[in-house]
Amino acid sequence: YSGSFLINGGPGTGKTILATYLVKYLKEDPKTSSLKVGLVVPMTSLRQTLKNVFRGIKGLKANMVLGPSDVIKDKYDILIVDESHRLRRRKNIANFASFDTVNNLLGLGNEGDELDWVRLQSKVQISFYDKNQSVRPSDVRPEKFVGLDAEELNLSSQMRVAGGTQEGQDYLLFVENFFTGRLANYFAPNSYEFKIYSDLEKMVDDIKSKDKNHSLCRIVSGYAWSWVSRDNPDIHDIEIGNVKLKWNSVNSNWVNSKNAVNEVGCIHTVQGYDLNYTAIIIGPELDYDFNASSFIINADQYKDFNGRRGIENPDELERYILNIYKTLFTRGILGTYIYIVNPNLRKYFESYIADSQKAQALQKVI
User: Fold this and answer.
1) Cα dihedral angle (7, 8, 12, 14), rounded to 10 degrees?
2) What integer best gives the mean pLDDT of the chain?
3) What is the signed CA dihedral for 351, 352, 358, 359, rounded to 10 degrees?
4) Beta strands of the chain (E only): which ranges?
5) Per residue in 126-175, pLDDT tens?
6) SS3 letters for 171-221?
7) Which of 276, 284, 236, 282 is nearest to 255 (CA)?
8) Which of 78, 257, 293, 316 has most Cβ atoms within 10 angstroms of its Cβ?
C-alpha cells in the first residue's frame, strides 16, 4: 500500500499524542510490527523531548524519532510527521548548503522541500497538520498541503484548554476570532484562569508562584526583542520597567529545562507543548488602530530576521505574527496570563473580556 493521509487538528486536539500512540500501535500489532516506521518532528526542541519519551516506552526507540534530513538515510514503509506545518522549504533557512545537499541526493534540484523528502522516502505518509500554526516564510506553504493527493481526516475535540470543557472551546473560539478579525464572541473567564496585566512584574511573580504549585508554568513572547544574551549571558534581552528577562538559554527541550521558569520562551521552543499556565508578553511589534479597525504590524520591532526577510507582502508578515500569538495563546491547560506592551492593543483586548453577566448581555446585542 502507498499513499498520504493529512490529519487536520487545531491546538490541543492531541496530534502529538496520537502520532506517538500510532507508532507504538504499529510496532505492537503483529500485522505491522515488521514495517519500518519513523516519527518525523521538524522542531529541534520538541524532537529531543519526544526522543526522551520514546526511550521510556517499551518497544520504541529514540532513533525512531527523526529530523526531516534524517529520512534520507533509509527507506521507510510509514513516516508519521508531527507538526507538519513546520516542515521547511528553501527560503530564509540557516544553512542552504546542507538543504541543497539533501535535495541533490534525492534528485530534486533547488525546488525540493522537506515534505518532498518525506514523500520520496516512504510508501505511506501520515501528516498531522494545522495551517494556523505556520509561523515563518520557511514553512512549507499551505497550498502545498492542499495540493496533496491525500485522504484527509479531522480532529475535532480539543482536550488541552480547560480540559476540553465548553469554556475551553469558547476560549479557543475567542482566540481564533480575535486574531483573525472575525470577532463575534466575548470571552467571560470562569474556571479557566485568564488575566490581563497592566503590571508585568506582577505577572512574572504570579507565574512563578503557579509554577511552584503546578510546574510547567512558563513566560513566553513574540520575537520582539533581539537575543543578545546568546552572545553575552550578562545582558538581559527584555527590559520593561523594572523587569529584566532573558530569552531561553537552551533550544532543546526548553520547557523542561532547569531554569526555564526564570526565562522567556519563543514560538520555536514552546510550539507543540502543553503548559499548565502560560504568561504571554505581547511585544511592540503588534498594535491596534481603532480608526482603521485593524491590527498594526511594526515590522522594525519584529526581531526574527529569518521570519521577515524577503517578505514583500505586509499581509503575509501579519499572518505569521498573528499565528505566533494564536499558538502561544493556546498552550495553557489551566490558564493564560497576558501583558501587552502597546496601550491601544491592550485597550482593544480588554474590551472583549467580560464577566459572565456582561458577556451574556453583549452577546444579545451582537
Assistant:
1) -10
2) 93
3) 170
4) 3-9, 37-40, 65-66, 76-81, 122-129, 150-155, 193-197, 217-221, 238-240, 243-245, 264-265, 275-282, 286-289, 294-297, 332-340
5) 999 999 999 999 999 999 999 898 999 999 999 999 989 999 999 999 99
6) HHHHHHHHHHCCCCCCECCCCCEEEEECCHHHHHHHHHHHHHHHCCEEEEE
7) 276
8) 78
